[in-house]
Amino acid sequence: MEVASYLWLIPLLPLLGAGICGALHLATLKARKANPDASGPSGLAPWVASAAMAGALVFSIVAFLAICPCDENVTKDGDAIESLRSSTWTWISVGTLHFDLTMWLDRLSSVMTLVVTGVGLLIHVYAAGYMKGDKGYAKFFAYLNLFCFAMLMLVLSSNLLGLFIGWEGVGLCSYLLIGFWYEKGWPAEAGQKAFVVNRIGDAFFLVGSFILISVFGTLEMQDIGAQVPAMIDAHGGMLALAALLLFGGACGKSAQLPLFVWLPDAMAGPTPVSALIHAATMVTSGVYMIVRLNPLYAASPGVLLFIGCIAAATAFIAGTTALVQRDLKKVLAYSTVSQLGYMFLGIAAGAWGAAIFHLVTHAFFKALLFLGAGSVIHGMHEEQDMHKMGGLRKHMPRTFVTFVAGAAALSGLPLMSGFFSKDEILAKNFALGGPNYLLWMVGVVTAAITAYYTWRMVALTFFGEERFDAKHVHPHESPLVMTGPLMVLAVLSIVGGAVLGLPHVFGLWHHLLDGWLEPVVLPGNEILSAQTHMHMPLHLSALWEWILLALGSGVALFFAHKGFHDHKRGLAMDESVQGAFPVAHAKLMDAWTIDSTYSRVIVQPVKLLAFVIAVIVDQFAIDGLVNGAGRLASDLGRRGKRLVDGTVSCYGLWIGAAAVILALTWFWRGN
Amino acid sequence: MLLDLLIFLPLVGALAVGFTPRGAVSLQRGIALLTTLVVAVLSLVVWGSHDLASLAVDKAWFTLPGSQIDVGYRLGVDGISLLMVVLTGVLMPIVILSTFGHITERVKEFMIWVLVMQMGMMGVFLATDLVLFYFFWEIGLVPLYFMVGIWGGKRRLYATLKFFLYTFAGSVVMLIAAIALVYKAQSTDIAAITDSMAALGVSDTIWLFAAFTLAFAIKVPVLPFHTWLPDAHTEAPTSGSVILAGVLLKMGTYGFLRFSIAMFPAAAVAASPYMMALGAIGIVYGAFLAMAQTDIKRLVACSSVSHLGYVVLGLFALTRVGLAGSLIQMVNHGLSTGLLFLLVGMIYERRHTRQLDQYGGIASVMPIYAIFWTIAVLSSVGLPGLNGFVGEYLILLGAFEAIPFWAVVSVTGVIFGAIYLLMATRKLLYGPVVHEANRKLTDLNLREIGLMVPVVVLIVWIGVKPSYFLDRTEASVATIVERLDQARDGMQTAQLPAVKGGESR
User: Fold this and answer.
1) For chain B, what are the domain ranges?
2) Chain B residue with Cα closest to A171
3) Alpha-carbon distance B318 to nearest alpha carbon in chain A (angstroms)
């Protein structure tokens, strides 16, 4: 049997797992009716869910091998198999418009499926330990598996509408999982905010898709890519507009300015959720979509520059915000926003491969950091405030070591995974020149900020004196089921970058990911070369490459050291900064007050408008007229009360009268 | 014969209920349930039939006195009415089952009214003769008047009077228009009238179009004729609300398509920008209206105004995609809003309040209820993979093809819809249980779960494989689109000589 026909199993296995876990949850509810403390069969859920993910991972690997360039992977005609395709039924078909549900695995989606199923599996295993004892244990795994199903639909769909099924599906799961502990109230509010803010992006996405349909007549992403070169002259403006609107959707999902405000709040969800959804997979789907549509974006360099500006601003603002946070997860959340900005910076330079490279390494090290943070929070009895931690390295050594590995990767210490991917993005912006020099500079500054806040976080959490109440809090290392995935991710965070994307100046082995993605990004590079009159992909001279690598290493090392040194002894630095710049500190704490400004200039006015419409317009104006008419009618009725004795018979009478008029009309006409 | 049964079996059922002794509540419920179940099965038989034309009935009825016009007993079903017939058929047993929980007094009368109503609604969708259509239209409306007036809430008299005044106004307008139409076309056969009217230009048909459109606009309701709806919904018993949202309002949108658009394509083309504007503004207006509500049932009612705005927008975009989207959205709205009303009714039966601030944390107490509520909300906000998305997407796309501006305005409904529905969900289901009375609530029983399962199945089915449903409407929609294209061509050629005349001078 052909591998392509197994493609559907990749998303369907998690869906099946979600169904079974859901059933387990219902069975648990039933068992709990008799005995409120019963755990029912919910203990099976992590096994089922993890098995589903393992199955999906196996099939992802099988599919990956099937499109690897080797002697066996050729068609009957001797052509190399570049992608797999598996169709089911026509989803929507009206007139000339057809949307099929088709799975399409090419080199790009293959990278994504491997990341989603691989990192996903690790997080499922971790969650088996983290969520133990929660009364929604089975429900949690049902949601988690459902998320993976939607995420895999997103990356495997061949057309933009199928992608949108996954796109909204992951949004739904994000909503459900952020609000997982809904009894507390505020997680439910955070979930609602995430959904609504994402919907704003989705509205842009929808309009963008309408434009694509009107220009191309299809939403098949491969067809759109192929047709773009022929359309640039006639419909260049429309293409740019569509690209811009779809980026609006990406701003929602991938938490870029001005729509990033939901992601910090999303930390209300359980920590495995933050790792899987709000760091490794879902939030990167905007990046994936744009790289997937690289010919469309290549056709509008202006849009790319705009994306770069948004990305640079987001990276910088979120990075600075992370500098002052006290909540461990908030640091990581703002860091994620900032790192997503880097990915879009890569896109802005037409460095599609670099963006995906950073997406992959970020999935490793940020999932690791979140899971590590979860392990800390778990060991600290749900404490998230770093000011109430300190000295934890002695209590949780395995978490500490792996967390440091993640921090090294995030801060871009030399040879760590984040170092290579970040460097590549910055180098491509540098190589492109022009306004991208500015983007490059912001990127370097943000790299310094990143190194600083990362090591501040490490210092405050694991070093210095113990600032928690040792009588009540007894920090302890997490079980192996949780630290095991940490170790795997730590290895990936350390060596992942060098293995996948070693810069060619090292001369040891090829940049694997670049080579792998070459056919995917080729159309975009060709179009961009024609548009900018530069040869894509860009290459710097070896000297400049070394200079930039050295600069990156220097900045990372210096600021990492500084961040660590400033905070390793305790809170003195934090307190002195807050004391010296109270206003600036408060503004940074509140993410440059962007969120509270939205609340003041958007949310409150919307509420007011709703009130005005409901009460003043609807009740007074429109209904006032209606009631006036009603009074008039009843006045008339009172005057003629001999003829009319009640509304029902009045109704009948009028109809009867009308019928008589009808008959008379014909009678009169007939004569 | 099949179509006759669809209409008159409910009447037989109503008569049978009428002959039962007053106290025999179970018997009355049983008869009503059985009748509606048989009708549901028959409607599915109609769905299964692949030669719809062969089902048509055409018998001479009477000749209008003093004229040559033969009023016929004409029934038929095509791609436009098919979905509505099945929706009416499938929804009614669910409605009857739902009444077991909240209609405990005067059960006999209630069942009679429900069955009479079903006869009227089936008749409206099946009649292919104008006189017959009007006859059933009135029959379909009167029972709701009694349902709200007798079994309704505290402000039922106000709501009833308001509903009556609106309906009455609409009916009078339609009656006058119908008389004029028959007079003009010299026929009461809707197909024949359509053929003769479709050839006419704007100036010949604009007043007829306006009158019919006004009558249907009140029924849908289209902004600014909507204020009877929240009151009627809020005061109606659950079953009344479900029928109202599920089927009755669709009589208006069905009328738009069958009469306003199919009969007067030229006038529809001319009016399209204005009607699209009303639809788009209705979407946003209804959403804001819903946002301000504190009464959960009123909130769902206001969401209806918003959701029906989509249907109006899609219909009057007058594109193939928009029309198809609106047809499927009529069903979607019936299912998702019907389900929401059922759920609101179920919680009301337990707690006897509709104020959102009296709830909170219901998900902890009634987890099964929370699952159904969440599905209904997701269907209503148009989550891809469920039914609502298919309709909304096609409608917005169709509108975009016609007038991008109104599509862009309407897209904001996607955001606002999420705001009020998720806000209601949060206040209802999430947070801690604050009110002691909520702690003792019992979760859904088997009857309640059972009656909602078919709706959920349809919600998922339409979402996952909409082509199965869209395909059945394809041919009829194509016919209308063809007429519209001809009308557009006609309007262009009508304008050309005038321009030429101007040039020669």
Assistant:
1) 2-504
2) B383
3) 14
